[in-house]
Each structure stands twice: as C-alpha cells, then as structure tokens.
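Subject: for your reference before the review

Hello V.,

The reviewers asked for a structural picture of the protein, and I figured it would be easier to keep everything in one thread rather than splitting it across files. Below is the amino acid sequence we used in the manuscript, unchanged from the supplementary table.
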Amino acid sequence: MPFTLYQPTTPGRRHAGVLQRDITKKEPEKRLVRGAKSSGGRNNMGKITVRHRGGGAKRLLRSVDFKRNKYDIVATVVALEYDPSRTANLALLHYSDGDKRYMVAPEGLKVGEKIMSSQKQIEIKVGNRLPLKFVPPGLQVHDIELSPGQGGVMVRSAGAWAILMSFEGGLARLKLPSGEIRSVAEDCLATIGQVSNVDHINVRLGKAGRRRHLGFKPTVRGKAMNPVDHPHGGGEGHNPIGLKHPKTPWGKPALGVPTRSANKASNRFIISRRPKRT
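And here is what came back from the structure prediction:
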C-alpha cells in the first residue's frame, strides 16, 4: 500500500507521513455499527482513571466477529474497510446463508475470495480459521484464542503475526510478536496469515493536532512540575529527577517494574518471557 512522506511545505507537514490504505468501501455496513460513547478517561463516578484521554473525532464502533463461529459455511469477501478503532483493516464477509459479519483482514486477502471457519481440517490458506492442531508448524497465524470458544484475543494489531512452533501434551507452542513463547490449547482457533496494514508502523503523525484527533491529550513531564504535584518535580532550571529510579505521580516505581502477578494461574503456560528492553 502506498505510503506518502510529505515535503516540508509547512511546519506541520515537515515530519508527517500518511498511509493510503487498500480499502474498497468507505461507508460501514449499517447493521454492524453502533455509537461509541467517549468516556474521556473517566469512570462511572466522573473521576479520571486513565489520564491523557479526551476529545478526538467522532467514530462509530464496528461489531467485529472475533469468534468466527459460523463453522463450515463459505463466506465471500465483498469489501475491505477502514476501522477508526484499530490499526488493522476490516473485511466484510457475506455468508452463503445471507449473514454479514466483519473480521480482522489478513494481509493479502482480496475482494471476491472465499474463506471459511471450521473446527475440522480445512484448506490452509490466508483468511481461513481452524484449530491450531491442524496447522503445520512454522506457519504464520493471528487472531488467536487463549481458550477454546473464547474468540480471538491475541495478535490482532496491524502487521502482527505469531509463529506456530511445535506441539506437546495437547498444547501448541507459539512465538508471539513480543518475543514471548507461550503455550495454548491445541483446540484454540487461529486465522492463517499476517494481519493487514503492515506499513502502519511507518506512519508519522507530524503534528500535535493529528494526535488530538485520535483522542489523546497532552502529557506533561513530571520534572516540569512542582514537588507538590510529582515526585520528579522541583529544582531550578533543567534538573534530573533526583531519584535512583523514576516514579509515577503517586510515588509507585515506574518503567521496567514487573506488574504481572507472580502467582497468576496462567504463568505456567509461558515458556519464556519477552526479551528485556535494552
């Protein structure tokens, strides 16, 4: 898909890069959308629980079928669409029984192709969904279930894929995009291929306004605040944070501190954690 890096005709264009997506339909399917209410990062009591959220362009929420539970019914890809709520494209499917559903579009899927979801052995081709136990090792998969029947929860963002490595004791071993190696039940469903819109990683917003359109508000550095507002605050001029390790505004350790519970039940399925950042 074409990626445009603009000439610096204005300050906002100087660092901007825009991706021209390979979509074939601009308006969403009316039966498959609903209004998305913006919370502004606030909970039901009106308190901000997620900072730096608010504003942004209005958007409609697409109902995406992550379960693909219409088994053994042929579906035809009739359109590839943009979804403002995710980085990947969507594919609109028309099933032979008349039903219409959205799915996360894999890279290389074309309009007019016929795909299928099944709990049995079917053809290995991009867009087909089947249990991991029927997928040959070494193949790229995405939209993977963590437990059978749950629906895809892993590897759904633009350009992502996981590698099926091996099978052992009823479990399939996967290498995830983060580098983590994890086991899931071999009856879990996964879609063949890589997630679409692989050039999304090259997009450069270029100016603050495009970030605001996405619904994000500015983030103030802690060291630019007063000591009463942040542990990093205070000092004359440009000073370091004055601490051995960075902290959150509420004094808890930040950046590189493990947050996963040491006693979480699913820890036994993680063969090796993702590599540490250097």
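For the response letter, the relevant points are probably these. Residues 208-213 form the longest helix (6 residues). The first strand starts at residue 3 and ends at 5.

Happy to draft the paragraph if you're swamped.

O.
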